[in-house]
## 1
Amino acid sequence: MSKFKYLIDGIIKNNPIFVLVLGMCPTLATTTSAVNGMGMGLATTAVLLCSNMVISMLAPVIPSKVRIPCYIVVIAAFVTVVQFVMQAFTPGLYETLGIFIPLIVVNCVVLGRAEAFASKHSVLESGLDGIGIGIGFTLALTCIGLVREVLGNLSVFDNKFSSADGMLVFVLAPGAFIVLGYLMVLFNKLKDRKKRA
Amino acid sequence: MVVVLMLVCLGASAAVAVVYAVTKDPIAAANLAKTNKAIEEVVPSFDNNPSEEILYVAADASKPSETNKVYVAKKDGGIVGYAVESTTTKGFGGAFTIMVGFEPDGKVYNTSVISHAETPGLGAKITDKQSSFITQWQGKNLTDGSVNLNVKKDGGDFDAITASTITSRAFCDAMEIAANVFNNINPENN
């Protein structure tokens, strides 16, 4: 149970988007549709899981003066790996996400979890935390993407349910801020209500 | 301290090198498949491998170093079409690249967008293959001077996409480049 908690924490109590408010750049930029949001979330989850585990292994032997460069090197290596794999096997998605895949390196979520969690916990706990935060990130991005897609493009997971024009603003950049804001309010309201009950 | 940092870097680069070696071929295959698909869409059916028969042709004869790729499609040894890759820098979201298929007499067979960064929902409509903006090019001969390669707003012959005049103008620009390239192919081939 106690270990399992790390997994659940990442999804609700420490949700990277709605609670920690980390990694806003890919959140706002890649969530033009649910599929894109999910792809970005899964790519980040893969990096987060691997880097968290490796960093928790390396943390005891890394002198604290050079720990940030070491973390960045580990994260960058995994991001490059993910990039190659996506390019080879999901070229369509790779093209859509474009520059945001290499930019996972500087995603605050990944470095933040390495510094705040993985460097102080065991490999198993860090792995669970990586998966939990990753799922939280993926769910949040998919939700934002879905709302933007439904309102802006009248489609669900790229299947158009109406040929009329949607409210374009939701697909454009301002729509990302609007949707993110409202979802954040909603998420925190539901979370607080659960706590009080 | 230095040793640890060096070891971490060494390990990381070794891992990246291994993955690079493993994924190199699938990446090349994926890129080739994408190009072939784009060619298939824009020229009549063919039986050769156009990716192996590429001509490098300049759009502007005075700048011979700036060439465009031209894929030659053949059936039973005869040329059935040319797929011209054309990039314009005038797009609303920066450069975009299209593939224009010409029949040997200079008529446009079809066009296809390879990569773009236009606004989703507005300029990005150029990727909709059934849209009237894309289909209006089919069958037009761009090389004999019978059409004015501009949008109607600029006195040309082509409708623009609603609310995407800049993208439409850029598309016309890319078509003009492709037409110039096509005009420069024939002498080299004969």
## 2
Amino acid sequence: MKIPSKLWFWQILLLAGLFLLWHVLTKPGFIPPIFFDNENRAAFFFGEPLRVLRAMWAWFADGSVYPHLWVTLEETVLAFAIGTLAGLVVGLWLGLSPLASALLDPYIKAMNAMPRVVLAPIFMVWFGLGIWSKVALGFTLVFFIVFFNVYQGVKEVSPVVLNSVRMLGANRRQLLRHVYLPSATSWVFSSLHTSVGMAFVGAVVGEYLGSAKGMGYLIHMAEGSFDINTVFAGILVLTIFALILDFLVSFAERKLLVWRPGQSETEPL
Amino acid sequence: MSSTDSALLLDAITVVFAARSPGAQAYTAVRDTTLEVRGGEFVSVVGPTGCGKSTLLNVAAGLLQPSSGSVKVFGEPLAGLNRRAGYMFQTESLMPWKSTLDNVVAGLHFRGEDESAARQKGEAWLERVGLGGFAGRYPHQLSGGMRKRCALAQMLILDPKIMLMDEPFSALDIQTRQMMENELLDLWSADRKSVVFITHDLEEAISLSDRVVLLSAGPATRPIGEFVIDLPRPRDVAEIRLTPRFIELHDRIWHAMKDEVLKGYRQTRNKLTA
């Protein structure tokens, strides 16, 4: 299959086409109501792209969205950073200690299987309505993804590489630093796209369930007053920032994992 | 030669692997094997596949504790890893996340040697194994032969007195392999280390070694023959295969080996049909 050279042009064209379709299908009186019994219904349920964009414009023009966006990003980054770090440390520990991993195995499986969103109200009781209850929720989502990947990464370190490095004279600390950690890091990165998304989910869902600030709060308030256009504006802003975060992760991945086949341009020698 | 000249002595080594599941039998990989390598001697250990050659090498490296018997390195009993030995593995052993140069200097780094001196030494070694321009490459960007050269430099930079090599070139094509064998002989003759070279390829064993030790088919492998290779050095591994003396030696060792190969083959087949 041949990929067109100006891919981004076609991607933007597709986006414009989708917005146009949305506009045509929801503008009151533009096409006769086929499905709904009233010509204003489609706009009520699905919003109107022009109004959505106008709502977004208003947010950014008067700057009222920035404090909310800032809070959500703060929660996301904190949940992501703390969750990743804890997952890395615990993953390395359990990966290297067969006794601890055998002892804790059923508990970890149980905690992973538990739907953690139900913990959100408990976190609110524990940590209050501020950012930390959202960070805690995001943490529980991120931690397990990173933990399982690191655990797997430690288990799958090539025994040959391990023996080779031991024969080269590495002590236990050097093994950790030069073999286990880099191996685990590559697994962490493969899970990073998922865990950034999960940190975001934790933050927004937490805000949605109870807060006074954040994008989730904005969306929740708009839903309360049936302001569908503002709801969509909130979703769009969140989506854009999720894309930006994902791009940043890809960028870091390219910089840090040059050694991995397929990550960098492999030249035939 | 006198016994003080002994570099490595495996004395009556037996290795028994415990059964993995209850009801299964314990597996005796090596039984009552004695192998001595003198200082500066190149010894090849040949045997049919699956006969416990690698097990023996792991014992010599200190990676595996024998069930009974003792290991002596330059007359001293071995405790823990064999610090005077370098090990070259059959499969990929380079750290994929480190560049060629960082892989080569890793051993010096672990010893806490000065960073810039180590790098200089590493670059010199890369030059010696023909990887001069490839210091910044990662293992996946190199060919199989280049990775083996890198592993060789990684081992030799630490100047081990004993080199343990476990079928290091078996994954290479025949031309690359002969080139690597010649380079190994060049490097080895520069300052004679003791070498234990494991292989299943008799021609490789004869063309490289001073002595070839023949192992029986597994389980419970033991040495069944020893042949001194009196071919003149320096050798070219491709050319020496055509000399009458090589063919004569090959013939003799092959006859001794044939029965064991057939035995090993029958055992594997019986296991499959059982």
